[in-house]
Write a structure and sequence with these properties.
This protein is an alpha/beta fold and about 500 residues long. The chain is built from 17 helices and 14 strands.
């Protein structure tokens, strides 16, 4: 459901783009009823939803610091409550990334939000610079899949140089002010806010900037206020070590892959010595292709696999197969993240605009040195040079005031990006926070097991303590031991 903080690696971030940068979403030219606020509403059909929804175009200032900079059109998708008139407090949904749009997670409607929608509108918001809100992106080309890391980096730099967007206007603080504009334009009173991954940072920023507008918060995969996005090596390494330990304790996995850690380390060393030239059938076309698999791409793919426990339980098989020279299964999984027909829809320039303005000023040499671990370091080390190309000034530090609204913090114990200790840090500046840790979950809890029911119960009575014992019933996926797939 959520996009990663770092995605997989720079090459996959670049290959994820599908549209050229624009100043406003395409819905601005559609006919619809204009409200007093200037918002235009129309019926719409969007990917991920089988029914007609309401699409709203909300004009917001392009740059809150410069009234003469003009406006941009913010795209909002409203899924009306099944029972009209029962609740006046909707659920605002903020996607991850930064760089993913609310309209790109509509598939959560029949899963995570089905019970909530019985009595509340579900409002998916395309953050400025994402989705249909003037997506700040780079054009995707089929030849990207065959380019070297250096060539891809040059492509990204050329995209940055060829973009006239005012990157300094695309911050979390500006996005939080946009949310208030949306609330007013749609005529809501207090709203509930759901944030996933980076959306938890935006949700917290909104609750601090407009405390009177937020009734409650549901944060899934919680980012701590002091978290620096590129500094994720330790959390990723901890998730990998946990997987190795789980395999060693599982009789079937340990028997099939008794030397798993050694095989992984040998692959890292071999790829780190200059990459590996591979010749194999393309998993998409079956045509024989040759390319160089670098350490950066290998480690980035491993990191991405760890987001989902079901996916992670395939990793021992993928590593073992690769160690024996059978790279086809690993490369098929590697390609999945950058598949042009898949879910790789991160707005790369928006991602960089946020990270360069808000995170890199805090990514000190001391933090970079102490952030031990190999999975994310290759990409993290590229950010300083990329941010220099972006030329975005540091965003002003935001005051860390206490959040008074009741908050439900959901964490997966196996999460490689926002593990439970991040939520515990965030809870320290919240007056009424309930933290729930799900043992067999990774990056994203809301669609699992009884979680959709618990979301509804919390939103109905956010001041009450939840009985979350049912989340312990979510089972651990089985390990894949061979080509036939996971064990029964």
């Amino acid at each position: 459901m959520y996009k990663t903080f770092l995605q997989i690696a720079l090459p996959l971030l670049l290959a994820a783009g599908a549209a050229a940068p624009a100043a406003a979403g395409p819905e601005a030219a559609q006919p619809g009823a204009a409200s007093a606020s200037g918002a235009a509403t129309r019926s719409c059909h969007l990917p991920g939803a089988v029914e007609a929804l309401r699409c709203v175009s909300v004009p917001v200032p392009l740059d809150y610091a410069d009234p003469g900079a003009g406006t941009l059109k913010l795209h909002v998708t409203v899924a009306p409550a099944f029972r009209q008139g029962t609740r006046s407090d909707p659920l605002f949904v903020l996607a991850g990334g930064p760089g993913q749009a609310g309209s790109e997670v509509l598939s959560a409607l029949p899963s995570a939000f089905k019970r909530v929608r019985a009595t509340r509108d579900i409002v998916f918001i395309d953050q400025r610079g994402t989705g249909l809100s003037g997506k700040l992106d780079c054009q995707s080309k089929p030849e990207h899949a065959r380019m070297s890391d250096e060539q891809l980096e040059a492509e990204l730099r050329a995209c940055i140089a060829g973009t006239s967007a005012r990157f300094s206007a695309y911050t979390t603080a500006s996005a939080a002010r946009d949310l208030e504009q949306v609330r007013r334009a749609l005529g809501y009173g207090q709203v509930n806010v759901f944030g996933g991954s980076y959306g938890t940072r935006l949700g917290q920023a909104y609750a601090r900037a407009f405390p009177g507008s937020v009734r409650s918060l549901v944060l899934d995969g919680v980012a701590a206020p002091d978290q620096v996005i590129p500094a994720g090596a330790r959390d990723g390494q901890a998730a990998l070590e946990s997987l190795f330990a789980q395999c060693a304790k599982d009789a079937g996995c340990n028997k099939a892959f008794p030397a798993l850690r050694a095989e992984f380390n040998a692959l890292v060393d071999k790829l780190g010595a200059g990459g590996m030239r591979l010749s194999l059938p393309d998993p998409r076309t079956a045509q024989q292709v040759e390319f160089t698999l670098t350490s950066e791409r290998f480690l980035g793919t491993v990191h991405n696999i760890l987001y989902s426990p079901a996916d992670a339980r395939r990793l021992p098989f993928l590593i073992h197969s690769a160690s024996r020279g059978r790279w086809e299964p690993f490369i098929a999984r590697h390609n999945l993240a950058a598949d042009f027909g898949g879910d790789a829809n991160i707005a790369i320039l928006l991602h960089l605009a946020v990270v360069c303005a808000e995170d890199m000023p805090r990514f000190t040499p001391e933090l970079m040195k102490s952030d031990a671990g190999q999975l994310t370091k290759p990409l993290a080390e590229k950010f300083p040079a990329l941010c220099k190309s972006m030329a975005v000034p540091p965003a002003p530090a935001q005051a860390l005031s206490t959040i008074a609204a009741p908050a439900l913090l959901l964490s997966g114990a196996l999460d490689p990006v926002t593990p439970p200790h991040r939520a515990a840090t965030a809870a320290k500046s919240m007056k009424h926070a309930q933290q729930v840790v799900v043992a067999n979950a990774g990056h994203g809890v809301s669609q699992l097991g009884c979680a959709p029911r618990l979301l509804r119960e919390f939103l109905d009575r956010p001041q009450n303590r939840l009985d979350t014992a049912c989340l312990a019933e979510i089972p651990a996926p089985t390990f894949q031991l061979g080509s036939a797939g996971p064990q029964p």
